[in-house]
Amino acid sequence: MSAPALTADADRLVITGARVPSGDALSVLLDGRRIWSVRAPRPDDGALVIEWPAALSERFTGRARLAVEHAGREIAAGTVAFDDGSDFDLCEPGTGIPQVVNKWGRIARSFEGRDAALIEHVLDEAEHLIDALRRTVGVELFVTGGTLLGPVRNGRIMAHDDDADLAYLSAHTNPSDVVLESFRIERALVDQGYEVVRHSSGHLQLMFPGGTVTDHFYLDIFTYFECDGWFYGTFHARERADTVTVHPLKPLSVNGRMLPGPAEPAQLLAAIYGPSWEVPDPTFTFVTPPAAFRRYYWWLNHFDVDRENWEDHHRSEIEGGPALVPSGLAVATAAQLPPSSTVLDLGCGLGADARYLAERGHRVLAVDYSRPALAWAQEHLARDDDAVLFERVNLTMARHALHLRRRCAELDGTVHVHANHLFNALSPLGWDTTLLLIKHLLATPGSRAFLEVGVAGAEGSASWTEYQPVDWTRFQEQLRRYSLSAEEQHDELQDDDGAGPAISRRVLVRRETA
């Protein structure tokens, strides 16, 4: 019998001649480094055909030395060529830090192979945060998630983890009060100098930047609460409250230091990871029960759709040297604006359009929620005359949209809106907040909104949840809902990527009058 063989392209990995029980864990190695773990599928005509995670598939380029291990033994290996590029290496753009496919299917860092001092730094900051919130708002944080799982198993942070997970049990049982408490905590953290990213009304992430466009690490703060006899552990767990005992907190050894843990760690871990939590599973993924998902979405919502994907995308652009070519929409907008106009650029990215408009005598307020994009644009494109300003705004959050409305009111004169493919990237919640913002801005006589949306063909990335073609009928209905209408439509035929022609529709939006 011939030895197992490995072949691959950007879509799938194929192993022939290997006998692996379906459901067993396989590890995929790149140049000897584990980058992904997956369950073996049922053989297809004698071959194991494994679809790559979309986030990894879109990164593949050049040549790569791949190997697959089963039960700690290499079963197949080979060099594959994805295209004519140079050797492929899965590293973070801008830093070169090795990356892996995490349990969310995203490309991310891990602690594995990193300097041990980094983990100690993470735990130092976790201790400081625990003390800070106890003193300032009376909230008792404790370790949870992977930061609880590893220490309960063997006393140490898991090597393939990439952050520290902390949580608190809310004193409230009404979801509205739980949300208000989370925002009070966020304000207290910002007052203490933390950079906070809000994923939902029950999940905060504290960022510790490692450079202009990179992060050294981050800490998660999850909100846990009880409601109507059920325990909810944001973002996933929903169990009967009498089966999960959190208080009183008790010390837990984490890499040799004592941090607060839940009263019954095994109960909480079973709620988060299921009854088999004690058995290591490198292929573990979260499957949120529908009853929990409905409640988390409607009670706590989700404000951070695809931000991490966009930040990775922008880091990659920055590493490659941004070309900063203005979009066709920016060129068309500049030709129609009155001289010395004020423009709000929504979803500005690295700022190519904002710079183009500013160079033509317009004043631009450019906003995005991608932190590395804004950091780079502020460093390289901001001007002393304030002709172009960059600010972070999350358009899925109503309070950010309200803040942006106030900022526009501070600017002199009429404010025009520019948004290039923004609605291809926004979640439904983002559509509502953005269209409401545009409606208010267009209430000023003479103001206009210049929008471009992809309405057919491939848009963005298959691994991104929301970046996709816009249904034109639905878009028009949403415009009418906010007393807006699309005029002067112009279609642009983009390059065909094999999935059908891509059509980008450029429109001028006005506010309808009664």
From TrEMBL:
One of the GO biological process terms: methylation
Coiled coil: none
Disordered as annotated region, ranges: 486-505
Gene Ontology molecular function terms on file: methyltransferase activity
InterPro entries: LicD_transferase (IPR052613), Methyltransf_25 (IPR041698), SAM-dependent_MTases_sf (IPR029063)
Domain Methyltransferase: 343-392
The protein, known as: Class I SAM-dependent methyltransferase
Organism of derivation: Arthrobacter cheniae
Keywords: Methyltransferase, Transferase
Pfam families listed in its UniProt record: Methyltransf_25 (PF13649)
